[in-house]
Specification:
Structural class: mainly beta
Number of helices: 0
Mean pLDDT: 82
Helix content: under 10%
Number of strands: 8
CATH architecture: Roll
Radius of gyration: 15 Å
Strand order of the largest sheet: 6-7-1-2-5-8
Shape: elongated
Number of domains: 1
């Protein structure tokens, strides 16, 4: 349903990258319900840019395909795998 979501202005749609750790450092298996969601994702859609006071648009720094690190409790979930963030919620872009 949300696969074709086109974000507006300075919003970005990110597909979370899964963490592969299934065990704690002590060897205890962590159930899916107790796992923390990762803070890494791949950008799948980008809005037009940030609207300035004069009405012009400032382009975003991130682009589709970038791998990004975002704030832990940022954004709005759109389905199970997608997250809608503002550009301000992205803390960094990982090199390819």
């Amino acid at each position: 349903m949300f696969e074709k979501l086109q974000p507006l202005y300075d919003r970005i749609v990110v597909s979370r990258l899964e963490d592969v750790e299934e065990k704690s450092p002590a060897g205890i298996i962590i159930p899916d319900t107790a796992k923390e969601k990762g803070q890494l994702g791949r950008v799948v859609a980008v809005g037009n840019g940030r609207r300035r006071e004069d009405g012009s648009l400032t382009p975003l720094l991130v682009k589709v395909g970038d791998t990004v690190f975002f704030a832990k409790y940022a954004g709005t979930e759109a389905g199970k795998e997608l997250l809608v963030l503002r550009e301000d919620d992205i803390l960094g872009i990982l090199p390819q």
